[in-house]
Amino acid sequence: MPRFDVNRRKKGALSAQLEAMKYYENEARAKGFQVIAGIDEVGRGPLAGPVVAAAVILPADFDVLGVNDSKQLNEAKRDELFDAILAKALAVGIGIKSHEVIDDVNIYEATKLAMADAIDSLALTPDFCLIDAMPLKHCEQELSLIKGDSKSVSIAAASIVAKVTRDRMMVAFDEEFPGYGFAKNMGYGTKVHLEGLEKLGVCPIHRLTFAPVKNIFLATKG
Question: Family assignment (predicted)?
Fold first, then answer.
């Protein structure tokens, strides 16, 4: 009986969290908007690999519990929610910009390009966009929310889709370019990754404009 009570309280808390995270979507619907997309990205900070953005349009009655900022969830929970989001979403779009694009235009601009691609790849055209942190100026109507992935269920869903998509790419890259620990660090500058850089030099997916990759690349080239 006590265990049942704990589970019931936990479910109640998750239900309350879900309703709270629908606030911005409900506000937009109250103003007459009907197709509301949440947009988020992952991969701005790593030394290797792409930046990945996702755009997600959820139904008003979306009922999957536990959707939150992907950084607050473990891998197993993210994978579970990823499948649930894909099953329940009205539309999902992905945008990917490679390390070459990042080096060419800078990470901020590459992130905006990935977000725009994610929106453009949606099967439905959103009439309102909720975007994590950065103003995009790609949607007719949009709202940028600081820490939006913990405030909006649509942005949180996008953060999970983007994170799982990019993580799976980095696991595949780890097999192609072993020695940097990509399957675990996802391209971030961990001790194992930095040791791999020192030992092996840069690989084809490293961001050459990011220190310390840039320094190692220039030293090797010189």
Answer: Belongs to the RNase HII family.
